[in-house]
Every structure is written in C-alpha cells, then in structure tokens.
Design a protein that fits this description.
Blueprint (H helix, E strand, L loop, with lengths): L2 H10 L2 E7 L3 E8 L4 E8 L3 E3 L2 E3 L2 H23 L8 E6 L5 E3 L18 H11 L8 H10 L10 E3 L1 H10 L3 E3 H4 L5 E2 L4 E2 L1 H8 L2 H4 L5 H4 L2 E3 L10 H7 L10 E2 L3 E2 H8 L7 E6 L3 E6 L12 E4 L5 E7 L4 H16 L6 H12 L10 E3 L16 E3 L8 H26 L6 E5 L8 H10 L3 E4 L5 H15 L5 H9 L5 E4 L3 H16 L1 H10 L3
Helix pairs in contact: 3-4, 11-16, 13-14, 14-15, 14-18, 15-18
Amino acid sequence: MNLVETTRAIEAGEVSLGIELGSTRIKAVLVTDDFNTIASGSYVWENRFEDGVWTYPIDEVWTGIQQSYTQMAADVQSKYHSALTKISAVGVSAMMHGYLAFDKSGKLLVPFRTWRNNITEQSADELTKLFDFNIPQRWSIAHLYQAILNGEDHVRNVNFITSLAGYVTWKLSGEKVLGVGDASGVFPIDDKTGSYDKKMLEKFSNLDNVKQYPWDIEDILPDILPAGKVAGHLTAEGASLLDANGNLEAGSVMAPPEGDAGTGMVGTNSVRKRTGNISVGTSSFSMNVLDKPLTKVYRDIDIVMTPDGSPVAMVHINNCSSDINAWASVFNEFAARLGVELKPDRLYETLFLEAAKADPDAGGLVNYSYQSGENITKIKAGRPLFVRTPNSKFSLPNFMQTQLYAAFAPLKIGMDILINQEHVHTDVMIAQGGLFRTPVIGQQVLANALNVPITVMSTAGEGGPWGMAVLAVYAKRDTDESLEDFLDQEVFTNPESMTLSPEPEGVAGYQKFIEKYQGGLPVEAAAGDAISD
C-alpha cells in the first residue's frame, strides 16, 4: 500500500494489532491487510528473582502494554496524520508456560511464576512417569502439582490457571481461552481431538493428593481454540486497558492467544510438516514439526503443538543471549570511558565480527551462559562462568566466539537427540531473533553447531509480534483455508532469505568445544552449590 491507501486503511480500521510479551521486551506491531508493518511500539522489562522465584510484577504487564500501544499509536499519528481509533483484529502472544493462578473473584493468588523457574523437578518427574509423556518443569501443570506437593495454601482457592497470553486476552475480551499451541504448554494435548488429553486428565484427577481439592482440573483450564477461530471481541474495558488515552473503540476480533513459540513458527512460515525453526533470545528453542511420532519419551524433548494443532518436537533451553548481552554492556561501558558512544547495533556488530577471526575451537576457551538453571544439562542454579586453561588462546575473537558457542550449547545437546537418535529431518530450518541482526556471524555459528543448513529471513529480528499480527488477520478472515496454505499463498509470497550451510572446519571446531563444555559441567554445578546468590 502507498501512503494514501495506508491512511485510508487506518481511518477505516482495516488494520490488525499483534502484541507480544517477550522476556525482555513487550512490543506492539500494527499491520495492514497485506501484512506490512506500519507502526510499532515497545517497552523494556526484566524478570526479577524474588523469594526464590523468577517473576514479573503483574502491574508491569499493563504498564508495558499501554506504553507499547501509546508509542505505536503516536507512530501512526506522526506518519499518517490519523488518530488510531479502530482496529479490526487483535492478537496477544507471550512467553509460554509458567503459572498464573486466580481465585473465583479474579485475584492473582501467587506472583507469576515464569518459564525460567526450575523449581518443579519432583512434580515434573512424577507426572512424566504417570502420563508416560514428558512434562517439563516450566509447564503450568508441573507448577500446579508442585504447589500441591508443597502443600501451598493458595491451591485450595484456585479457580482458573492460564498462561501470560491467556491472562491478557482474558482481561481484554472476558474470554478464558488459549490457542492450541500455547495450551500445549499448560497441559498435554491430544493431537487427534485438539483438546486436553482425556486419559491424562483422568489420571491427574485420580491422584490422592489432588482429590482433596474442591476443583476439577478440567474446570480450571482455559478452553482451546485453533488458529483462525474467533476468541471473542475486545470489550470496552479491554480497549481502555490497551489505550490509556481512551481513543480506541471496542469490538475488535480477538485471535486465540498464542505462545512465543507459535508466533515464531508463523513468523518464519514453519507450520507445515517437516519444517522447523529456531527462536533465539533470552531463552532459545527449536521447533520441529513432526511427520511421525517419536519412538519414545525423552525428558529433553517436549511435544507441543503448532497454532493449528500439529505435533512439534520442541527443544527448549532457559539460557541463550543473556550472557552475551551482559558482556556487551561491559564493553560498552569501557567504550564510554574512552568517550566513544556506540549504538547497540554497532556495538554488537563490532563484537560479532571479531568472532569471525576466531579459531574454530574458540582457542580452547569455555563459557557457561547460565543466568538461571538449565534443565537439559541438569544445572539447578545459574552462575555465568568463563573458564580457560593456561594454554588456551585467550583473545577477543576467541572470547566472542565462545560466547556465541555457549549460547547454542544446550540447544545442540537437545537437537542431537532428535537428529542422531530419532533421525528427525526438516526440509528447512529457519532461525529468528535479535542475535541475527548482525548478518552471517551468528547464523554460521548455529549452522556449524547443529551441523544443518540454517536460513534467516529479512524479518529475523522482529518475527514474534508480527507473527501474532498475522494470526490476528487470519482470525478475522473466517476462512476455511488452512494456516499453512494461508502463509504460503498470501503472506510469504516473496520472502527474502539467506541460507548458510555448515562449514566442515567449523563443525569440527564446535565439536571440540562441546566436548570441553560437557566435560566441565560439574564445575558449573559446583559453582551453583558453592556461591550463594
């Protein structure tokens, strides 16, 4: 659309809004019906470690959403000289999993327990054995059952549990629903029915320590909707929660709320069987859409769903780019002491380009980028740790290389199970995330680490909220067209992308690094035991 056509679309309300509450940023993206982003706004936030729990204040959810929306609306006004008063469709996505529990009055019973927590080991192990289905520590049902095992007082008063995206959608629309992809991180889904697995619900309800409570598990879970269905409409109260200035009208179609994994799949056109994508950020995860079931249960492989309900093998790691960001901040402070002001893109580009000069094995340096515990490597407490021997080749290129190597290390450990043991192959593996804003460097490291070709699209840094906006457009279309055909034939008609294949020398170098990395894991574990937070 040209400027005049876009202005008319805004005035007619023919625009759709995608909101994503990520781990470090809340972002609002407004798109036209041809899927072009015309305005955006964002808010930076950080999780807090309080009373042994990683959390975000619930009030900050709304502070962040309102500031993101206000910025986005101001962006519309400045570019198109039109006030934003009508939006045809709204979709909300957020960090998956975690635990938000409410009583019958809608009061939050305990602070939001995020995906980052690894405090549910006992419940996750017991439920995995009970269901013969992998239940990760971060899933909502693991948090609920751990609270039961802990004898927490609030459990008796639970009336509703949901994800972060489900909570925001509930407050905007009054509907207690989840998209099937996000719901698959709350409780296991039966892919044949698209609903919560009935046999597993019954097994959970029949546990002696569950029977004591006045609620039934089915009654406290959100309803499930696949992508393309209408999940209610924006209420007047919801409109005021979005737009603190009071200009936005009620009535927008609400898309089923999704997790950031689902929007990552949509944003990279990876919902068709034998496609895959990798999202890189504070955490990281790979999504491999399966064409056949896995042969057995793996504790490091989660079975979740695409937004339209196909099974996905997910490898999720709690730690990815946080340590890189911390070191970049230190380098930026040093530059500032020298009177040099660096914008973020220039800072990261400069550091990442140094990695291109590194030795293939990063000079024997080893790094553990664990801001929090890491389930795949059985590390309970995060202690970022850099290790070298007297004979290691300690240089800036090797240091930056080991930062990138460490960011992908737990992901590789999980992906090796799928590739080497289950022989899962994808026709395309697409990566997205801010780490790829610097071209080639991170992409090549990832290709070498996993020993598979990696594709990065031109939208690699902004996939999630835009992917949710695409799902909002899909919901308002009310079409019988499948999501995969909708994405292929209407959204990604001319995608810009670049694919890098593994380099034999880089693959061999990364293998040397990962062997040292795995050999040193007891040191990282000991650091968590010996150094209090």
